[in-house]
Amino acid sequence: MPEDFSFITAILRLTLAMLAGGAVGYGRSKKERDAGLRTYMLISIGAAMSVLLALYEYQALHTLWGDTVAAVGDKFDVSRMVGQAITGIGFLGAGIIIKGAHQQVKGLTTATGLFATVCMGIAAGAGFYEVVIIALILIVLVLNVMSPLEGAFKRRLRNITLHVEFNTVEDIATITKMLQDQQVQIFDIDIERTEQKNDKYPSATFILKLSRENHSHSGMLSSLAELNCVHSVQELIA
């Protein structure tokens, strides 16, 4: 590793990037945004790797790869390859992200994971092995360990998104009244089906904020399920 870098420095920079991305993702998760905690962590780790690679490359051109630069001239610029790789993963990531049922966006974590993985591959190709090891551990940690923790965290928030099936569209008034009686703030109601088709009842997605006194997600699901007009209720977790 070039003299201006150290294993400890790489750990600190990548860990700081992960924590900073997590801090942003925490706020976005509280607002029920599609890109949440893990998504921002992965983006931040990948971006930090890009900067570390650029710094490593700049110094390596004048030390480890000095003979090559002298042979081919000063126009030798590996960073162009790095830029093209990162640009290319952007198009691939866009193709993975889709909008599924009940207005849920799928593929964000996969797309950002690909971005971070591309940066890790570039680091491996450049011989920046220490950062590859650190990033691999952090990315695996975010994707596998943070997933259940993020789900548990979202279930403790007052914000909740529900998909509800009912008898007729007029039942929305009954559901809304019950929510208001429990001091639930209604942000949005997105009606998906207005009549029964193919054994599927009329349905809508409710974006809500529970009261401070009663912010139990399971309690809200039970209250809605007890209504005679409701056939099914499901919490949507991005």
Total of domains: 2
Q: What pattern of helices and strands is seen along the backbone?
A: HHHHEEHHEHEEHE
Counting DSSP H or I runs of 4 or more residues, the number of helices is 8
Tell me the β content: 5-15%
Shape: elongated
Number of strands: 6
Low-confidence stretches: none
CA radius of gyration: 24 Å
On the 0-100 scale, what is the average pLDDT?
80
Strand line-up across the major sheet: 4-5-3-6
Sheet with most strands? 4 strands, antiparallel
> Which structural class do the helices and strands define?
alpha+beta
Ends apart, CA distance between termini: 40 Å
Please bin the fraction of helical residues: 55-70%
